[in-house]
Amino acid sequence: MSFLYPSVFWFGLPLVALPLVIHLLNLRRQRRVPWAAMQFLLESQERSKTWISLQELLLLLLRTAAIALLIVMLARPTARSGWIGRLLNRPVHHLVVLDDSYSTTDRWAETSAWKEGIGAANDIAQAAADQSTASVVSILRFSEAEQGGEDPRPGIFRQQLDDKSRQEFISRMETAQPTDTASGLLPALRRAVELADLQPPDQDLVVHVVSDFRQHDVQQIDAIQEVVDSLKKRSTGLQFIRTVRQPHENLALVSLEPESGVRATGVEMWMRLAVENYGTSTAREVVVELEQDGSPLVSVPVGDIPAGETVDRRFRATFVAGGAHWVAGSIDADAVELDNRYVYATHVPEAQKVLLVDGSPNGWESYYVGTALAPGGPVKSGWAPVVVKASDFAEAGDLSQYAAVALLDVPRLKDEQLAQVAAFVEAGGGLLVTLGETIRRDYYAGTGFASGEGLFPAPPDLPTQWIPETDDTENPAADIRVTDHPAFSVFRGERNSMLGLMRVNYYYSLQRGWRNDKTDDVEAIASLADGTPLVLEKPYGNGKVVMQLTKVSPDEGTLGSWSNFGPNPAFVVLTNELFGYLAYGAAADDVLTVGDALRIPADRAMFAGSGSIQRVGRGTPYQATLSGDPAADQLVIASEPIERAGLYRVRLDRNSGGTEDRFAAVNPAAGEGNLALAADTTLRQKFAGDEFALRYADELSTEANPSESSWTEVLLASLVLALVAEQALAYVCSFHE
């Protein structure tokens, strides 16, 4: 047995002899004086002397025991071995479920939520090591719970805690760091239930959930309550240990990305950033400092941000040279450092290639679209149209090399071609489809639409002539109405008059009753003046499909001219905006969220399907290999999930030898930096029960540990019994009236 305060024990140990000393001193006060009248009394006392001596001896022992119990209780024993400890305690498995999401980097004064959590884990381990029986400790981190896998056991599982291993455990915990993930409470509790099912029947389980318990952690509180109830049934105790007492102000740079548009060497583009205020007061005069490829770019004044709101700002950027580039923004330090920086990375080509598949008889569709995208001359548009006839579609090669694909009045696609285009869009590419006289309506309405499950947004019916309600040749009304869509943003305000120059003569109406539960995401982004759909959009996988129900060229067919779009000045603007919108998804693969795997579509003719990735700059070093599936239809070079935010250099191996460098940006998930706390009353009301307790981490070190408290209760009860027995025996012995 050891003591929390051994000096008290050794100082008080001599006091145990105090009753005996007092008894001996009292004996010296007694004198034998002969007295004839007392002879009878002495003879009577002699007959009961044995019983009286026994009573006095018991009284002396009770007084000695009372002092001994008081001293031992004040010294606070912590038994590690012995038969008394084995009687008082069963073996205990302490399962610590530790929050290591990046909200635990919340810092104040000289500490942080993570430091408080580590301190709580160490206090639990210290208390477990002081128990009278062999106890074990497991540490389940939130991030481990979200990694999945067949084996639910964490890295620290059922570790014995003798003197040596306890110090190793504490040293290991002191060097541990929080992750950059937004790992949640619910997956961690579910993994804890799996570990509880592995518990031996002859051992108690006590679960300690150490977290900051933010509001976003308990959004699924009903589901959490179900899991907590399961844990209560499988354990002898459950406590929530809170590492934060109050929320702190925090700003986060939640996005930094280009707006839709061409992304090419030497072409200026607009970018947008957003800052969110997670605090409870207005943030004043916020400024975002930008850098491009390691050099300062500009400072963007954001201004005041009210509590709970997000403010975005635009800025211009130009990449002078082709290749790998990055742009990063940062704001001033606050409670959480990780979300003060956001990185955007891209691979900028000399020009973005777009594939124009032309099915029109004379090739006029691709002529007008291609001319609008790349008119030639001194002005660089940034687009590089590649034109193939519909019959020569196979010559297009791997579609991953294109930013967008356009099917211009294509009669139909072969099954393998349709699958290839669908895979391209699903991976993030954009597809434009225009309908003219040469299309096979039965194909588009059947295989292409597939009752809403196909690639095309809607089933075309018959070519229909558009006849405006009024015919004012001097001031004609616009045939087209557009929605508030990124592709038509240039036509807002005064520029909306440009749409009045664009005329429609024929278009495809849609089959009646085509809407169903699988077409809820299909939207008409442009329509004729009477509301009839003219341009439809459908999300497909990670990409999008835009279908225009009329031709582009004014070339006259059997019905005459379908539209005047091609030679119209407004068409040049519209085409560039539309392809910029379609190409946006295909060019955004270099920006990831922590926990995502990097996936880079690549051309088999150029790349070997292997490479490496390495973290750039300060922070935790990271280096890994990349690989692709050689059997896949489309080559995608991928990494394992990346768990740390930052800028990464990617090197892709070329078939011809050498490598191509790119950058990848990994940013923390937005929302985890919201430091608003779930109320204590909410947690207590939801999880109340005999097996549940809610404590704060800074209270654990001042509380009695479990093994010590069990001894204290026993000693206190014994002391009370000893004092009561002493008083009763003293009364019987006539020492009290």
TrEMBL record:
Keyword terms of this UniProt record: Membrane, Transmembrane, Transmembrane helix
UniProt domain Aerotolerance regulator N-terminal: residue ranges: 1-77
Protein name, UniProt field: BatA domain-containing protein
SUPFAM superfamilies to which the protein is assigned, alphabetical: Class I glutamine amidotransferase-like
Regions crossing the membrane: 6-25, 57-75
Gene3D superfamilies in UniProt: 3.40.50.880, Immunoglobulins (2.60.40.10)
Domain of life: Bacteria
NCBIfam families assigned to the protein according to its UniProt record, in alphabetical order: two_anch
Record organism: Aeoliella straminimaris
InterPro entries for the chain: Aerotolerance_reg_N (IPR024163), Class_I_gatase-like (IPR029062), Double_TM_dom (IPR011933), Ig-like_fold (IPR013783)
Pfam family, one: BatA
